[in-house]
Amino acid sequence: MARPDTGKKVGWGAANTIAVALTLIPVLWIVSLSFKTPAGILDATFWPKQWTWSNYSSILQSSQFIRPLLNSIGIGVIATVIAVLLASMAAYAVARLAFPGKQVLIGMALLIAMFPAISLVTPMFNIERALGLFDTWPGLIIPYVAFGLPLGIYILSAFFREIPWELEKAAKMDGATPFQAFTKVIAPLAAPGMVTTAILVFLFCWNEFLFAISLTSTISARTAPAALAFFSGSSQFTSPTGPISAAAVVITIPIIIFVLFFQRRIVAGLTSGAVKG
Amino acid sequence: MSVQSQAATVRAAEQARPTRRGRLSEGARAERRLGWLLCAPAVIVMIAVTAYPIAYAVYLSLERYNLEIPSAVKFVGLSNYGAVLGSWYWWHALIVTLIITVASVAIELVLGMLLALLMHRTIFGRNTVRTSALIPYGIVTVAAAYSWFFAWTPGTGYLSALTGSSAPLSHTGQAIAVIILAEVWKTTPFMALLLLAGLSLVPEDLQRAAKVDGATAWQRFVRITLPLMKPAILVALLFRTLDAFRIFDNIYILTKGGNSTGSVSILGYDNLFGALNLGIGSAISILIFICVAIIAVLFIKGFGTAAPGTDTGRR
Prior knowledge:
The complex is a heterodimer. By secondary structure, chain A is mostly helical. Helix content of chain A is 76%, strand content 0%. Chain A folds into two domains: 17-52, no CATH class; 63-276, MetI-like fold, CATH 1.10.3720. Chain A has 13 helices and no strands. By secondary structure, chain B is an all-alpha fold. Chain B folds into two domains: 3-61, no CATH class; 79-314, MetI-like fold (Orthogonal Bundle). Classes of the chains: A mainly alpha, B mainly alpha. Chains A and B meet through helix 1, helix 4, helix 5, helix 6 and helix 7 of A and helix 2, helix 4, helix 5, helix 6 and helix 7 of B.
């Protein structure tokens, strides 16, 4: 093949640069804002003229941010663990077992993946108040598990189909029950798929906003994105722009690093259900 | 015949029935039971969180139920639906939602296709582009929305300063454009990744053969790449359309639905937490659910056999 000529190289280089710049600028802007002083925030320049950590120190001392951050982590982790566990059981059944009602399960998962969350907010608000789940961790964990399940069932059944199932048969021949074959042989092989699913479900929980503001009323269960929307300045005369930006950076940067670290798995997971289907 | 022997016959018949019907061996029956057992927890959670509340919402939507006057709860039939469908707010929110959905999905499809082609074809820096494309996907929507909100705030934002301290968020049309911009920025990479996966299924040989036959790059794209990518495009469009129709986070942060920029989701939220009207709120919930169902059915009709999940089900 001929070496690409200079003109082509410049063209692709320009296209690459534009694509990368467009994805980065809004992120750099919120980072820049988070380092601006209150005066700097009002000068409308892209980069701060004076850098300060004060926005970070103020939010990291505020229970209005720390508590929601802990809620986000706790709710996200618990919901992810439950969703991955239940989804891997169901996906195993879908990929491996013959049983009536399989189509119903798949249809149901597809339906829920498309479900408008807002349609559930009004009835869930009333149900959770009646059950005492309103503004508690389980009150958010339960809907998060339900919405993580379709994603998990799809990704995991796609992964489970790739597993060499002769091993399962071999285990059964050696006297393992179907359940033992599942836990001892298949589950370890399925671990990569489960990690991918866990990442995507956790990202969903971390990002979720509508349930988070509708089914909570105080910081006892409010997650970080929801808390951001209720931020106010340290006094009523200071605008909360700086603290909001710093909080946005705190909840965003770890996730971006996490996503970039697991990028192969995430791309595989996002596209597995879509293309193979 | 004694009652006891009759019962025994019935029991025997019951035991025999599955054997006669499906010739199920002991192993097949155990497999069946395990299948149901493994699916049961997932099914129970999904039904408890979606089917039950939506059924409850249907019931609530038939009542006059305002949390401020709980004593006045009364069955009123379809009058809540009449109130919603007869109000300008619903139709306005629906039109805004449709504009945002159509515009953002159309722009995302074009940009996503360009980005996918770039990631697929670029001769260097491919990994850098792929990595950076995941940043908008990974960022929390609310955080990204604040970035756009501050960027367009007069006196604070660089974009507002660049455009002569404009305040687009206080004009209906411009605010909707900013909402679409925020939505497109956040979700184009997702679209691009789905399209890229479809793009990698297009055989290189076919492209080369067409090139030898003198087809231009555009002809190859339209005649070969696009038709082969149709399933991937339809899946990406379905997911994104339904997602865009449910838009909430971006609007909530950017305008709170002010200046007539609210989507149907914002309308539902405001009705519950502003007016505390469970009856009307539930009617809105049901109407949104019906809209989403219509969109999904239209798409799945378009899919034909390529609907996601059909392959999963074949086994």
